[in-house]
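Escalation from tier 1.

The customer reports that the assembly of two entities below gives different structure tokens on two consecutive runs. Tier 1 could not reproduce it. I'm attaching the input and our single run for tier 2 to review.
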Amino acid sequence: MSRKPVICGIGRTAFSRNSERTTLAQAAEAARTAITDAGMLATDIDGVACFAMGDSAPGMAVAHAVGIDDLNWNMELFGGGYFATSVVANAGMAVQTGACDAVLVFRSLNGRSGKRYGRADGGGTKNGSAATSRTAMQVGGERQFAAPHGYMTPPQWLALWCRQHQHRYGSSCEDLGQIAITQRQHAENNPHAVQRGHIDMQDYLAGRWINEPFRVFDCALEVDGAVAMIVTTEERARDLKQTPVSVVAHAEYTGHGGLMDQWPDYTTMYSEKAGPLLWQRAGIKPNDVDIACMYDCFTYTVMATMEGFGLCQRGEVGSFFAAGRATYGGEVVVNPHGGLLSEGYIHGLNHTFEAVLQLRNQAEKRQVEGATTALVTAGAGPFGGGMILRAGV
Amino acid sequence: MTTTSLPPQPKPNLDTEGFWQATKSGQLSICRCQECQLWLQPPLERCRQCGATTRFEAVSGKGSIYSFVVVRHGAVPGYLDTLPYVVAIIELDEQVGLRLPTRLLDVAPETVEIGQRVAVQLVDLPGGEFRVACFRQASD
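Tier 1 run:
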């Protein structure tokens, strides 16, 4: 009897700029949809796994809200997008070891109307904004050295990293633009994407600066919403409704204590270490994947991690996209849903949703023909992971 | 800068307070192992390499720009009305890879380059008692 991990059901809410719903309500909707999609009952689920940064409903509350009374495994990770593949892989390990039989995995957030990652004070419309705060924020930990200088948001950190890459390898703003444009083209065929309007290089370059060298099109689209999936064993999935998607391998890496400032080389990320480990564990090569859902909090993250995972030569990511090698008919389709840049930022768990949809041959207009193997990545900078998914068992 | 928007204040703890005491008294000091002489940033109570005790020691305040970003979108309180500003990661002369995040003072963004020499200047941080280590472009 095989306890190899598979994803047997997926669900999600609409993604929007203002859900006007709680994170619990959205997580519950996505969870119910995933359970139904799998052809299971709530009582078949005995594990829950999620990640959050103090901005979401607890896993056990979500399980309770959909009628799961008995949990044998409950994992709640505190952290960001670097956990988006780990949370799935850990659920896989839980079913594989027999800790439980079926795990509800979810991420739910009001990333636009609630706590926003692009703002130091987290201010969305519901939290008020920094401009009206009369007491200064207090920042401890290693960030106490950076925050007083007005340096404390991800779009500042990664733009600063990107500058070093431009300096060393001569990568350009146009190279970043190729990534944003290609992903937007993909989003045009995705009704679930929040941004679907066509952009070309002129539009990209006319985009307003956020933090030079990043323009607005280089940054993930903060949205509200939830994504959920069910992870179970190959054996259990055999008589379920959908074609299972196998979790073939996962590799994660955290270096230098996750300290952004002290990471030795800003032209590389966690992927330098996680990449080779992943290919070794999966027993395949980078050119064996049909789809790559690359974590794209920023365009530069796609650039540095495509190099790290070995999908591209260093300094050649821009020309790789420009030549059509990262889209339909090319070598690998990168972010066929439009990614976090265009579909929306559900902290990366929507990448796994898309990969499963594609591997089940259910992606409709944006289906990558004959896709059997997908790479999903998570994270940026010093921490992250990569996961290989395959259609069937 | 308006009174309704104060910059983030550091929240020191037992390991980091020596840094802030030093800047307050007019000196940039960095945590250093008293045994193997390794400089440690962020500061630690004990050396991460050899486990020996540490203390804050004065540094030259000179270094080079490792990388930088021109912030053009206001997202941090205290800096909403002062756009653009340039944040840089400085590699201090004392040790390869010893880095400090900072803001460059009185600088035209288009003149900033990776590798440029910089020197520290301590500046009062509005809204509290702290002095922070900013840097200026320098010739040596």
